[in-house]
Amino acid sequence: MPYLYSTPTLAAMLVFWLLGLYVLTRGPRSNVSRLAALAQLLLALYLLGQALRMNAPTAEEAAAWGQRFWFGGALTPAVWYWLTAILFNRAGEATTTGPGQLTRRLIGFGILLGCAFYAATGYIDDLLFRWSQPAIVSAPWLPNGLIAFRATELYAGFVAVTLFAALTALLNLRYLWATSVDSRLRARFLWLTASAALFTLGGGYLTVDTWLHLDLPQALGHLTLALGLALVAWNVLQYNALLEDQVLTRDFLYFISSLTLLALLYISVVLAAGIDDPFDRLVGLLLVVSLALVSHALSEFARQLWDRVFYRNETGELRSTLRALTSEAGLAPRLERVLSDARIELEALEEKQLRIQVEDALRKLNNLPALSAHPLQNRLQRLISRRLGSGTKLSENEPGEDTSLARARALRQLLVGTIERLKPTGERTSDLSGGWIQYLTLYEAYVLERQNRQIMARHYIGEGTFNRNRRQAITGIARDLLEQEKRAGGQNSP
Q1: I want to staple 37 with a disulfide (CB 3.0 to 4.6 A). Which of 24, 163, 227, 248 is the partner?
Q2: Which own/partner pairs from 328-333 qualify as long-range (CB within 8 Å, at least 24 positions apart)?
């Protein structure tokens, strides 16, 4: 069992893991959400190291774990400040007063450099902490004492950077709350301002305690940070939900409960392993649970990565679209909106796939054997069948029949006829309009099989204009063919 004094730290670490992973995987793809998740995950790592330091049986192990994830606590103030600065820019300045965007960026870069400096010095000998000189802290709430490592004089600078970052972030959010005219957003900014106050209180409590060797209960500071950043995560999500018209509660509970059950499963596995040493058992427990939470929460990202490797064509796009729609279904307040989005996305994907097939068929327009086995025939079955039924002929003396070459001829006529639908009305002038360029690029390139450079030279068209108009024309006839096929299906239905 872990040392009782470290229980609040372990609880705060678990909260940071769950909230950070939720914001990262379920929140919108915005810089505000990414920074909110990063702050949570950095503090989760930092508290993981602190919890193991508190439970370490020897000074060497305590130093190793206290130092290992120090960077998480050192970088969090900078991430927190940048979160509020970007939120400030995104929300917009409601008045002409207040700090400008350039000023906020300069402040942010200064804070980032300061935090990066102190993150690095924490790993250099005894420069920031006296890792080689452990101290035993005794207090009424520490009946067994606690191994601690005193901060050096250099740590005073980190206290100043942390407090400055926390206070400027608090001012950013206080300003947004005071100037917001939307009552719903104003409520979000009020809660974010409260979370900034808690972050300032918790961060100041921990850093000042470490700096002045006050030996106060650090768990109190960890819980204050946990409460503050939990409010941050939830209100950032609610802020985005207001902008996107989403409902979070059910999806949030679904995510948290599923990962909590997963954590309990892995805890039971580690406990069943029968590790004798209590500290080794605790290390295994915390590392396995942390890895399990991260790996399962990020499994969706892994699937997307593998889709790019194994499904590079329209199948990969379809899988990606279906995943996005599945995620949206858990957040949308009305199912009708999800169904509407699904129809739009799937129709766009269908049109894109048809465009690729149409372009390939145009390249083989005068090659009937190649067209006879072309997949576009499967997409335009009704239109081709209608042409065959109306008497498509292979030659003047042979009646139409449903053979592979007859279907290829019908497909060719269908494509040529659709190209002709692009032809503008009226006389063609020497100064070609966009409609004439689109028609001529397709007709001459695919029907007459002229080289691209010939077409550009004949009509004084630049390469960029030629390629752009050809793409637009192919998209246009693909959309027209899709609409014709759908109308043919409606006319054939009883």
Answers
A1: 24
A2: 330/250, 330/251, 330/254, 331/26, 331/241, 331/244, 331/246, 331/247, 331/248, 331/251, 332/245, 332/246, 332/247, 333/245, 333/246, 333/247
Residue 451 has pLDDT above 70, yes or no: yes
pLDDT at 270 over 80: yes
Kindly report, residue by residue over 23-66, the tens digit of the pLDDT. Answer: 888 777 778 888 988 999 999 999 999 999 988 989 999 999 99
Q: Rounded to whole angstroms, how far apart are CA atoms 415 and 320? A: 31
Query: Do residues 481 and 411 touch, judged by C-beta distance below 8 A?
Result: no
Alpha-carbon span 259 to 62, nearest angstrom: 29
Would the pLDDT of 95 be above 50? no
Distance CA 349, CA 317 (A): 8
Beta strands in 186-344 (DSSP E): none
Q: How far from 357 is each of 312, 354, 362, 374, 478, CA to CA, in Å? A: 16, 5, 9, 8, 9
Tokens 């402040």: give the residue. Answer: 107
Q: How far is CA 261 from CA 106, 118, 254, in A?
A: 44, 37, 11
CA distance 98 to 172: 9
Which pLDDT value is given to residue 96? 38
pTM: 0.70
For the chain, how big is the Rg over CA atoms in Å? 33
Residue type, 261: L
Strand, helix or coil at 28? coil
Instruction: Answer yes or no: are the C-beta atoms of 285 and 14 closer than 8 Å.
Output: no
Residue 89 has pLDDT above 70, yes or no: yes
